[in-house]
UniProtKB/TrEMBL annotation:
Species in which this protein is naturally found: Tuber borchii
Subcellular location: Membrane
Region feature Disordered, mapped onto this chain: 1-25
GO cellular component: membrane
Protein name: Voltage-dependent anion channel
Record has Transmembrane as a keyword: yes
Keyword Iron-sulfur: no
């Protein structure tokens, strides 16, 4: 199956789909079949999750010296994986150009097109985060990468939903939040903006402020559009009950947009206060209500509210999944699990960030540490399962 389908089954595919698996006469799958039908956009979820885990390891409240080395290795591996995937997709679409349109409009793979841009954004944040440890940060390169990511995120964050809107589908109402993945890159713009702004000197606030402003604007775009989709998801839960057992884990996708927005707004709040201080020489003037002080409290308030919303979705997802755990088929596809780990990466990072802003109160710090290590452990299991699936060939028969 191509990626994480809306029904998490083959029922969403039509018999004439160019993305349906094809086999040779003896039932085996050749390299061209794998390239055309298996190397879908969903593979970028592995880059997103791996890059996010590298960020978790860097920001753990109780991390030990040298832990950043492990995170750096994961970051480098993610970067190499992204380049290899990009090259693979260039070959894939070069061999059969009609697959570009087919993949974008496909009912399941189309939902994962924006994960390419999201993976790019996570790698930019990783590069800026690990710059001080692994190499010297190049300010101009970081700023250029942000503006490039902004353009790419808008293209994918607008184009992908537009493609979904244009498809006339009148099937059974969907009760999973997978549609939010189409605007996923927009919910990472603020994170990238805050990370890049942190590497800009306060003497160059005139350079940092446009980045911060655009980060706030497009982060707002991403979270508000996501909330519209999530409100529809909750409304359908009221009307059509919980998703089928096989689809319960997909509910974790709803955690991602508010979690990453909470993280982004809290980081942007810090950068507003840093680059726009409340003093007479600040661009805002002499009145302390102007400048970074006001923006700090506004953004911090938004961050707390969105973290609370992500906590609600997280708890709902946990309890509904646990309730069906005994009946759930554990033979899920590895790429599905990467897509479900990434939202929890955002929730872990947001919890760590808020814990840090509150001065690392012991209870919150321990909770964020346990949550983060759980996400890292789940990611490690999925990576090992994916490696086994690739080596055994199983993943190319089922993805």
């Amino acid at each position: 199956m191509s990626g994480l389908s809306r029904r998490m089954s083959n029922s969403s595919q039509t018999s004439n789909s160019p993305l349906l698996p094809r086999s040779n006469g003896d039932g085996t799958h050749g390299w061209r079949d794998v390239l055309e039908n298996k190397m879908t956009w969903a593979w970028y979820t592995s880059i997103m999750s791996s890059g996010g885990v590298a960020l978790i390891l860097y920001n753990l409240p109780y991390g030990f010296p040298g832990l950043w080395v492990l995170g750096g290795i994961i970051y480098i591996a993610s970067l190499v994986g992204f380049i290899l995937l990009l090259a693979t997709h260039i070959v894939r679409f070069s061999l059969k150009p009609r697959l570009i349109r087919a993949s974008i409009t496909h009912p399941s793979e189309g939902l994962f097109v924006s994960t390419f841009a999201a993976a790019l954004g996570i790698l930019i944040v990783d590069g800026a985060t690990y710059a001080e440890k692994m190499h010297t940060a190049h300010g101009m390169a970081l700023r250029a990468s942000f503006w490039i990511f902004l353009v790419v995120s808008v293209i994918f964050g607008v184009g992908s939903p537009l493609t979904q809107f244009s498809k006339a589908q009148h099937g059974e109402p969907e009760t999973t939040p997978l549609a939010t993945q189409t605007v996923l890159p927009l919910t990472l713009v603020g994170y990238a903006a805050a990370t890049v702004a942190a590497h800009i000197s306060t003497r160059d606030h005139h350079i940092a402020m446009p980045i911060i402003y655009m980060g706030i604007a497009f982060q707002g775009m991403g979270i508000l559009v996501s909330l519209l989709s999530l409100s529809t998801f909750v409304d359908r839960l009221y009307h059509y009950s919980l998703p089928p057992i096989s689809q319960r884990p997909s509910m974790y996708v709803a955690v991602g947009p508010p979690a990453f927005s909470a993280l982004s707004f809290s980081l942007l709040a810090e950068q507003c206060l840093r680059h726009f201080p409340a003093e007479k020489t600040a661009p805002g003037g002499a009145n302390e209500i102007f400048g970074g002080v006001a923006l700090y409290y506004i953004l911090f308030t938004f961050s707390l509210m969105l973290w609370g919303l992500s906590l609600w979705f997280f708890l709902i997802s946990v309890f509904t999944t646990l309730a069906a755990l005994g009946q759930m088929d554990i033979a899920v596809q590895q790429l599905q699990m990467f897509a479900l780990i990434f939202p929890n990466v955002g929730f872990s990072l947001a919890t760590i960030q808020l814990s840090r802003l509150f001065g690392h109160p012991k209870v919150l710090a321990i909770i964020s540490e346990v949550l983060s290590l759980t996400v890292v452990g789940a990611w490690a299991i999925v990576v090992l399962a994916t490696c086994y699936g690739i080596l055994s060939g199983r993943i190319f028969r089922t993805v």
